[in-house]
Design goal:
Elements (H helix, E strand, L loop, with lengths): L9 E8 L11 E9 L2 E6 L9 E4 L4 E4 L1 E6 L15 H12 L5 H17 L2 E8 L5 H12 L4 E6 L6 H4 L3 H10 L6 E6 L11 H10 L2 E6 L7 H9 L8 E4 L5 H10 L2 E4 L1 H7 L6 H6 L4 E3 L11 H22 L11 H15 L16 E4 L13 H8 L5 E6 L2 E5 L2 E2 L4 H18 L2 H8 L21 H5 L1
Parallel strand pairs: 1-4, 1-5, 6-7, 7-8, 8-9, 9-10, 10-11, 11-12, 12-13
Antiparallel strand pairs: 1-2, 2-3, 5-14, 14-15, 15-16, 16-17
Helix pairs in contact: 2-3, 2-14, 3-5, 7-8, 11-12, 12-13
């Protein structure tokens, strides 16, 4: 019998469980078992009785947590992992929106999505919103969906097209046909519509919102991006009645209090991509402001063309950015922060149940009987960083890395075990990506390829040093 044969029960034995239950997100269950039958969590408790044919996974010394949920990842760009490490947001826009995004063929979208989906599972991210704004044609969209369905994770295809105004591509008959064919992809492949509101007073995005409403699809939008989307976009959405509890506002990093009030009042949520906001320039990561307005938060990593494709890094960066701002503002007033406002358990919640809440999935992001069996075991017996685990939430947020993900279960299916992916064609994904990189390099000149990866460094003026006229070697030094 195959050890992880489909439908065979699985029990995680003796781990420290972080259930992330509503109202008790700091609760920890030591030496606890989790029993999975079918696609659901059947039981949670110490020394559970399991079916005779259950696979037993030793979770002792490890942490069992809900699968992490990324609510905003441009998966199609993963084939260019690290290419834009030194970009600003302006350079990203120029490269993808104006110059080279049109070079991506359907097979290149497939390659990026496949690699991104595999990468997510490897890092314990069991659900990803594919913010797929490279879908120039329906063939590109089918390629994106095909890739997601080929990898055993849970995904939401957020359909977008940066090469056309949203009112145009959402009105196209072929888009409607795609939604009819693929939009109801079932429990493992959800559907959203992805576009931005640029603040034009005529509100040209209104027809796209009307299509989304007609189709019953949630809208995800980049909001509060410095120099691109502003308070005007939020105001237009609100005044025309298109802000809903299902709307996910990505970044929301350069908005006014008025915009945050509108988001809070209409029940929407914000997807914070801290590594992105820190580096690209959308605005300072907004968790400090979002918490003050009581807006639900989820986490995301944005794109592997810059940043790491895991939510451990997102949690760590988010804590660092929030606390750094808190200290900086206190110091400016001559004060000292004595208690951190943002805690480790909060970012772990944002990375799990926060994402589930944003997607309207109360069956994800928690470890309770009856919920979906999307689980992660963090355990690494080969690492000195795996012990001691004194503060489980602090360990997840500050100590754990993707290499510490021992086991991943999605929809009751074990997709990673003992640090190895199962049922995934990594060699095939590598071959696809190699073909995409070769295509892009050949379609661009060598000069354009190198220039895109290595943008010019702006000149920097070194401040005059008023102490350069002194000799640090004093007379006493010379006499020694």
């Amino acid at each position: 019998m195959n050890e992880f044969e489909a439908g065979r029960p699985v029990v995680l034995r003796g781990g420290t469980v972080l259930p992330m239950s509503p109202g008790g997100s700091r609760r920890v269950l030591p030496r606890t078992d989790v029993l999975v039958t079918g696609d659901r969590i059947a039981a949670v408790g110490p020394e559970l009785e399991a079916p005779e044919d259950a696979v037993v996974i030793d979770a002792s010394g490890g942490l069992v947590m809900p699968g992490m949920i990324d609510t905003h990842r441009h998966m199609w760009q993963t084939a260019l992992r690290g290419y834009g490490a030194d970009w600003t947001l302006t350079q990203y826009f120029v490269w993808f929106y104006l110059e080279h995004g049109k070079l991506f063929r359907p097979e290149d979208i497939h390659a990026g999505n496949t690699l991104a989906a595999i990468e997510a599972l490897d890092a314990g991210v069991t659900t990803v919103v594919d913010w797929s704004h490279g879908l120039r044609t329906v063939d590109h969209a089918d390629a994106a969906a095909d890739a997601l369905e080929s990898v055993p994770g849970r995904y939401v295809l957020a359909y977008g097209n940066i090469q056309q105004p949203p009112a145009e591509w959402t009105a196209a008959p072929e888009f409607r046909d795609f939604v009819r064919r693929r939009g109801a992809g079932g429990d493992m492949l959800g559907f959203q519509i992805a576009f931005d509101v640029l603040g034009d007073p005529s509100f040209p995005e209104r027809p796209a919102f009307e299509v989304a409403r007609e189709l019953g699809a949630a809208v995800t939008t980049h909001a509060g991006v410095w120099g691109a989307t502003s308070d005007d976009g939020i105001r237009l959405m609100h005044e025309h009645g298109f802000m809903t509890p299902e709307t996910i506002y990505v970044h929301a990093a350069s908005l006014s209090a008025d915009s945050y009030h509108r988001i809070a009042a209409t029940g929407g949520s914000i997807s914070v991509s801290t590594e992105s906001e820190q580096s690209a320039g959308q605005g300072y990561p907004p968790t400090w402001a979002v918490r003050a307005h009581g807006i639900p938060v989820s986490l995301s990593m944005d794109t592997s063309v810059w940043w790491s494709g895991d939510l451990f890094s997102a949690m760590r960066a988010t804590l660092g950015a929030d606390r750094s701002r808190e200290h900086l503002e206190a110091h400016a007033k001559g004060e000292t922060v004595t208690h951190c406002g943002l805690r480790a358990d909060q970012v772990v919640e944002w990375a799990t149940r926060g994402g589930a809440r944003a997607l309207g999935r109360d069956d994800l992001g928690v470890i309770e009987p009856g919920k979906k069996a999307d689980l992660v075991l963090v355990k690494n017996e080969h690492s000195p960083v795996s012990f001691p685990i004194l503060n489980p939430f602090g360990h997840v947020a500050f100590q754990a890395q993707r290499g510490d993900v021992h086991t991943v279960i999605v929809d009751g299916r074990v997709v990673k075990h003992e640090h190895r992916l199962l049922g995934v064609d990594l060699a095939g994904a590598r071959a696809q990506v190699e073909r995409t990189v070769e295509h892009l390099r050949s379609a661009m000149s060598d000069e354009a390829w190198e220039q895109g990866m290595n943008p010019d460094i702006p000149s920097a003026e070194v401040l005059d040093n008023p102490y350069t006229y002194t000799d640090y070697r004093s007379d006493a030094t010379h006499r020694r």
